[in-house]
Amino acid sequence: MAASVRSASATGRSSAVSSSATRATRDAKRLGGQRRAVLALAAIVPLLILWYVLTSVTHTVSPGRFPSPHDVYQAALQISHGNGYAGGTMSRQVWQSSKLVLMGFAVASGVGVPLGLLMGWSRRAEALINPAFLLLRPIPPLAWIPLAILWFGLGDGAKIFVIWFAAFVPAVINSHTGVRNLDPTLIAAARVHGASPPQIVRHVLIPGALPMIFTGLRLSLQASWTTLVAAELVGAILGLGHVLIVASLDIYPGMILYAMIWVGIMGAAMTKALGVVEKRVIPWRS
Amino acid sequence: MAQLVASRRPGRGIPSAPELAALSVAGLLLFFAAWYGVAASGWVPSRFLPGPQVIAEMIDRLAQQPYAGYTIQVHTLASLKRFALGFGLAAALGVPLGLLMGWYRWLDDLVTPLFEAVRFVAPIAWVPFAALWFGTGIGGPILIIFSGAFPPCVINAYRGARQVDKVLVEAAQTLGAGGLRAIGEVLVPAALPSIVAGLRVSAGLGWQSLIGAELIVVSSGVGYLMVQGQTSLQTPIVMSAMVAIGVIGFVIDVALRALERAVRRSWGDQG
Lengths: 286, 271
Fold this sequence. Notes:
Order of helices and strands of chain B: HHHHHHHHHH
Largest sheet of chain A: none
Helix content of chain B: over 70%
CATH class of the largest domain in chain A: Mainly Alpha
Distance between the termini of chain B: 35 Å
Number of strands of chain B: 0
Mean pLDDT of chain A: 84
Oligomer: heterodimer
CATH topology of the domain at 72-220 and 244-267 in chain B: MetI-like fold
Distance between the termini of chain A: 19 Å
CATH superfamily of the domain at 72-220 and 244-267 in chain B: MetI-like
Low-confidence stretches of chain B: 1-12
Radius of gyration of chain B: 24 Å
Radius of gyration of chain A: 24 Å
């Protein structure tokens, strides 16, 4: 779910040694990339034109149902200047939401990854922790929102608490699986060569589990973002979800769409940023 | 040989099965004891953290007396109905789309950019438009469940279709199977394990999106029950609804896991 549909056929990177055969496939891939870009434009441009025509020329779609490009532009102008909309300018709203996501995500992965590693490393720890974990796991993070509001009110604390739940579960499960899937021979070999348990953890366990850890972090980050937007929709004084719900109550489709576009942009930006970190940390995983 | 195997098993490092079982029971007891202890100790006011026994009583009461309009069973049924409709729609549209994208290159090239453009918009962000277009009765929530459950259906059907052995497809075509027949008789069976795995992910996301939708725009269902409990500062009601949500989510997951296992067993491990 996390990986893009396209990831299977991602563009090939050129290797240092390029025989005529690999060059041929590379050219084919580049051509494929150009073809894909053309087709992407062919899919998106007509849709944008259709959007403009239906909302602004023929007025088939009423402005109360879906905004015209001009409505979205007006909404963007309104929220960018002065007092903005729903309590602040877009940059403040976006900053508020990203700040909370990063804080909640950091706390959750800071606790979840070590816990998952511990559960993967020690069968005893797994047996002790797993039942309680399995009991809480089926409750979706969004279902914690009302309780979080009861406990912490409408401020930042409630959001960080809910994001913590959303991000914690994937972080634990994937770190756990990452350790469990390690080849036991590697650990045995390290032990035979005299590595101490801390050395094994540092040099065998963590590097071996890193790909799975990152898979977990990616899922965690997406869950954090969805959960935060939901939490802000339910109750907040600032943030993208708050903009969405205020625009919804005002029946202001231009602003709804503009806020949704920002939800998408920030979601994509965070996932891409994590991808960059992943490439830095595990360069051996192509 | 037997000695070699036996010599690997015992030792201080590897705990025995009874010990692990005891630890699991201890873990569960510890969880409930900590909950009960904190609630009973009075550190946290009981209106914020009621003990497990209070929740059990509350569930029993909610099952008999209506709260927020209905009993908890009726709320649960209302949620399940929405879930079934939204998830069914997502599977009915998403799986064929994914398969066709895996089969026809041009469709893949056309749909993928659109898909990528909306993929990062969190499903819950569709709430305002869902309410605007379809109202808050049944249509709006279904759109939100759909937007949560649709992507995994498409992606897994697509991956399943792409992983199908080309030789199988060519063999079918050589034997005279046309487009539709090749899809029905080669592509679908071969992609089935991946499709079912996608359905499980999709059901989880759909269920979670439904709860989100019910928190915001709906006037029946377990999510609504929770919000009503929250606004009247009734922590036991909120926690009872969480238990109901967890149980249903668990049952849905177990059912789809069983389906996944059944498919894997009869189709071989391809997914």
